[in-house]
Amino acid sequence: MKVALIPFQKNLVIRMDNIRFILIVTFAMLVFMLQQAWQLDYGPKPEVAAITDPLANTKEDLPSATGASAQTAPAEQNTAAVPLSTTSSANVIKIKTDVLALQIDLKGGTIQNLDLLNYPVEKPNTVVDKLRTMVGLPVAEKNTNPVRLFDSSQEKLFVAQSGLIADSGFATAPTHHTVFKAEATSYELKPGQDSLTVPLTWTDNNGLTVTKLFTFKPGSYEITLAQNVKNDSGKPWTGRQYSQLLRVPDTSSKGGMLTGGMRAYDGGVIYTEKEKYQKIAFDDMADENLDVATKGGWTAMIQHYFASAWIPPADQDNHFYTKSLNDNQYVIGTYSPAVTVNANTDAQFVARLFAGPKIQPMMENIAPGLELTVDYSFLTFIGKPIYWLLNQIHDAVGNWGVAIIGVTLCIKLLFFPLSQSSYKSMAKMRKIQPRLKELQERFADDRQRFNTEMMALYKKEKVNPLGGCLPILVQIPVFMCLYWVLSETVEFRQAPFMLWIQDLSIQDPFYVLPVIMGITMKIQQGLNPAPIDPIQAKVMKMFPIVFTIFFLFFPAGLVLYWVVNNTLSIIQQTVITRQIAKTA
């Protein structure tokens, strides 16, 4: 009996023989693009040209009044001709806590050269070094210096500035160009101390005194800034506080984002009461100055693994701004409402600066939405649950590699019913493969008749030819999410697993895991029904080799997930295939 096919069914039959092949090719292209993006972040970086004239900046680098805020914004006439200097003054204060080492430049109280003491640039791998020595290979030197987040050097300029701006008609106020005085040249937070406060003072000829107080706490990447204004001038003073981040972008980032959003974002961000989390790329800053009013919120510069954010009081009406300066310098910041300090009284302006690793539980406790700086791209809704699950398992086992294995098991259990159905369809497809080849040979010159007979065979054997596509469809978003989680989650940076794998965020130094992944992929491929098209069959045989080459340069944690996932799939599929074979 012939099976009648409506046009849609005919087209479906024609396509379903190729759809799995197309999915695998698409997945291969995705893996290749992710691999390219990963190389841009971790591969060799081009040299950055130095800024030849650090005093060439003539654009105003303080917050300015625009649009509707013109009547209440800080005046600029006091500093309009002052160029931005990227050269530190000779007088700096050195500060050290248990997690930070930094300098405060007396010129403006600018925070610079901030080192994250618990995060070395590179981590020595003693296992790999010993093995290389045993076989006579040279051991590469590692840069074990701490990561420098803020930097005063010309080619990597990144500093945190703050100051006050007097409103029009009032006396001057200290900006980040003003020189302060300090009581000491170095401070250290000793073990057992609850906090450390570093004071800077400035006094003008009219009796206005400003004291900047920087407060540090043990184990914290948060710095509290309080600017106390004491007015002994004999008349009222009105002004605002501003706090801003100034940075020269990493030229190798190409704007911070690869085409298609496949790379971790590197640039400015803001968080407002209305719009919540928003990215303000350097190109956006160059095109137009930001001018946003909000209650609370924060402004930040983010990069791989680390973030820096100025956080004004949450109950205060704040104004966010950006500026594009000369010499490829960009500013993002916030200024407060105007405050009037009457004669013979004082007032205090407060802001907090976060400068450290993007550890989500820690950031959630600092400011609303600050944890969103861990950028999982458009798959955040999947990435966050995966991160939460990884954290829960890690808290129990204390090893991020084991946590990845645990998450892989959980994902397999979650999709067990779907994969079970898919593997059954694939096993049935494998079982009827000889009959399909026979039909193909019999109706080699009649494609329509072949499709009709093939559809009838599928119906008779109760086979869903599209069922085998499900494992690929499920793995694509999970794979991408794990890529982003491993790429952006600082906890994986230099996290050891076992033996020679001492950093899950970089490639396997001996390429063992990628080779194992290729072997498991080949084994799993042998359990799947081969494409009827001989050209597709030949191409499919090449994929284990192609994927192995791609995965040579992926982070070990991601390859570990794929190895465990393939191994579990092989076990599950082998059991199902044998059960289906017994029913023959």
Secondary-structure blueprint of this entry?
Layout: H1 7-42, E1 92-96, E2 100-105, E3 110-120, H2 126-134, E4 146-148, E5 158-166, E6 181-182, E7 186-188, E8 196-203, E9 208-216, E10 222-231, E11 237-247, E12 267-272, E13 276-280, H3 282-287, E14 291-295, E15 298-302, E16 306-311, E17 317-325, E18 329-335, E19 339-341, E20 345-357, H4 360-364, H5 380-397, H6 400-414, H7 416-431, H8 433-442, H9 447-461, H10 470-488, H11 512-527, H12 534-551, H13 556-582
Parallel strand pairs: 1-7
Antiparallel strand pairs: 1-2, 2-3, 3-4, 5-11, 6-8, 8-9, 9-10, 10-20, 11-18, 11-19, 12-13, 12-15, 14-17, 15-16, 16-20, 17-18
Helix pairs in contact: 1-10, 1-12, 5-6, 5-10, 6-13, 7-13, 8-9, 11-12, 11-13
Q: Which descriptor suits the 3D outline?
A: elongated
Strand order of the largest sheet: 6-8-9-10-20-16-15-12-13
CATH class of the largest domain: Mainly Beta
Number of domains: 2
Query: Given the helix and strand composition, which structural class is it?
Result: alpha+beta
Distance between the termini: 24 Å
Number of helices: 13
Q: Measured on Cα atoms, how large is the radius of gyration?
A: 30 Å
How much is the average pLDDT?
A: 79
- The helix content is 25-40%
Tell me what portion of residues adopts beta-strand conformation: 15-25%
CATH fold descriptor of the largest domain: Beta-galactosidase, Chain A, domain 5
- How many extended strands? 20
- In the CATH hierarchy, the architecture of the largest domain is Distorted Sandwich
